[in-house]
């Protein structure tokens, strides 16, 4: 069973991209940390089955198997990768950059700075 996650696209979604991009970037980071935590639980359960570590905190049920934790890890990692890729895509970056430059006030024109002449010191 393959599930595809479709993120908003098109003109209507372009208006909300400035609000969505930071949220997707933050969510991708949190999902990466959750994936690492699930991977550690999978490794703990696997090493418990081999007799190398102490007792796993879930003794029976669906989540007492290391394969389940590994599947959750892979799912979270793929979702985090997709969200991070969406938040760094060139079209979303251009929307964010264009909006930030539009709200920034124009800087006054500065006069060119003349370089000072270096004085040579004569030593005798």
Brief write-up:
The chain is mainly α and 124 residues long. It has helices at 11-14, 17-50, 66-87, 90-103.
3D architecture notes:
By secondary structure, the protein is mainly alpha-helical. The chain has a domain at 15-62 and 84-100. Helix content is 60%, strand content 0%. The chain has four helices and no strands. The radius of gyration is 27 Å and the shape is elongated.
Features:
mainly alpha, 124 residues, 4 helices, elongated, 0% strand
SSE string: HHHH
Task: Work out the radius of gyration.
Answer: 27 Å
SS field, number of helical segments: 4
| Poorly predicted runs of 5 or more residues | none
Helix content: 55-70%
**Which structural class should the secondary elements be placed in?**
mainly alpha
How many strands, what sense, and barrel or not for the largest sheet? Answer: none
Task: Estimate the global geometry from the Cα principal axes.
Answer: elongated
Distance separating the two termini = 87 Å
Which range does the strand content fall in?
A: under 5%
How many E strands? 0
List the helices and strands and how they pair.
Elements: H1 11-14, H2 17-50, H3 66-87, H4 90-103
Helix pairs in contact: 2-3
